[in-house]
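Budget justification note: compute hours in this period were largely spent on complex prediction jobs such as the one shown. Inputs:
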Amino acid sequence: MIEFTNVSKTYPGGVKAIDDISLSIGHGEFVVLLGPSGCGKTTLLRMVNQLEELTEGEIAVEGSSIHDLNKIDMRRNIGYVIQSNGLFPNMTIEDNVMVVPAMLGWSKEKKKERFEYLMNLIGMPPETYRKNFPHELSGGQQQRIGVARALAADPPVMLMDEPFGALDPIIRARIQEEFLDIQRTLKKTILFVSHDIDEAIKLADRIVLLKDGKLQQFDRPEELLNRPANEFVSEFVGEDSVLKSLSLYQVQDMKAKLTLPEASDGLDGTVFKHGDSLRYVLSHLLHPTPKPVYFERQEGGLAGPISVAHIEAFVREMTA
Amino acid sequence: MNSKAVIAWIVKIAFWVVIIAFFWWTISNNMYAQILENPEQFAGLLGRHLQIVLISSSLALLTAVPAGILLTRPKFKKYEWIFVNTANLGQTIPSIAILALAMGFLGIGIQAAILALYVYSLLPILQNTIAGLKSVDPAAKDAAAGMGMTPTQILFKIELPMAASSMIAGIRTAIVLNIGTTALAYLIGGGGLGVWIFTGIQLFDNTYLISGAVPVTILAITVDQLFRVMQLFLVPKGIRKAQKAAAAT
Ligand SMILES: Nc1ncnc2c1ncn2[C@@H]1O[C@H](COP(=O)(O)OP(=O)(O)OP(=O)(O)O)[C@@H](O)[C@H]1O
Ligand SMILES: [Mg+2]
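Corresponding output:
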């Protein structure tokens, strides 16, 4: 879907922002570009829709080299959300969201319908906000509108540069959840810039970790956490990488890896379902006055009681 | 009401008291005699005045706005300082000197007056056009480009609407100054209401002075108010609301 081949970028003045990067991103994949400030995330993203030119190498989107595509047409087919939302203050919310459909010459009815669909998707009632202006919205709402605007013409590819950057942690977490839900139904191919490892773990199918324009590791989040490719990666993911990785695994992963004792029914304790995160399980086990922990079993009945030792064994399995 | 608002009110009331007193004084002393007795001459002078203002400021508008747009395009950015400095020079030289220079080129008459006032009006328009376009949020321009707007679309749909308020302010300043400065056109044989003003000065005759100066002033104030109204139509509602909200905090 998006193919980077030996891509390099040197800015006038000599800063080598991207250094020989090759990546292959699949259809419907959610890839997070991660790394410290100034490592080249934004540059790499902006090369895809040709807002920055490549110095060397080649980028192909859906099999065609970006050089062969008409810049304007390709950009209308790629959703773009920028770091500071970039809404147009002279336009109403509806006009902001419908910029690309308007350029594509959609009919009035089709635009209206699409606007209503998108606003409901991002959880903002269309009638309430249609005639508002960007400055009348909160920061979080503005960023949601930025996302809706990028989704407007239903582009198969989305480029998102820290779209949830300027939000406080609670709102941010909620918008991340909402966006994951949206992505589960829309299945876009997404390149998403973040400098926050937790955000990356939460959202990404795969993470691209960059440092000084060089690729450090391109892998699934659990691989990045459990099998860091080098010193920089293990430092970047932090000393609590094991804890972080637990939030990536669910009860069902543990049941698949370990043989757990069978428990009789009707016990007093906390029962976790298949989809529950192991991080919650561990948190329960470490509680000062823990209740016994059980897992729900597919074939009925319960497994358990689960102990910290089980988690330890599971982590050892996963990092082996 | 805070003390600022109270002071603003007092100033406003004092201003109107002075205005009314002034008009009462001029009318009761029959100072508009020239207008009343020579209506044809008055119409001629006013027409000439308007002609000079209209031609010189339209030309300035047609030059400075496109120049300001060009000088903010990436290609021509490097030339901005040359033009702004040149236009600045036009502004620092006293208006009388510009008139004299124009007369040197074109001799005595309306052409010289128009040229001088044209040069004199360039800077405020150019400066405000550039300032307005430069103040456009780069993020908005970047987002627009990233969504596939052409440079022309970005200019007309994003940049000009967002710069409109500053540009109109520049045009307003230029034209209001122009109306006042056109009174000097008399000095190089350009005609206009300056004829009566300077006659009044030379003859110590208040009827000439007031019959010339008051219409110029009213003209300037009217045009100024006209532009205020125009602002409401030309500046997008979102921008006006945002400016108001920003001013309130
Ligand atoms: N227009 C430019 N001209 C010159 N150098 C640039 C330009 N844009 C970025 N750079 C440099 O390229 C490098 C990568 O910048 P980039 O914006 O891609 O980083 P980033 O990873 O997005 O950082 P952040 O997390 O702070 O947004 C930096 O060293 C930066 O200074
Ligand atoms: Mg960046």
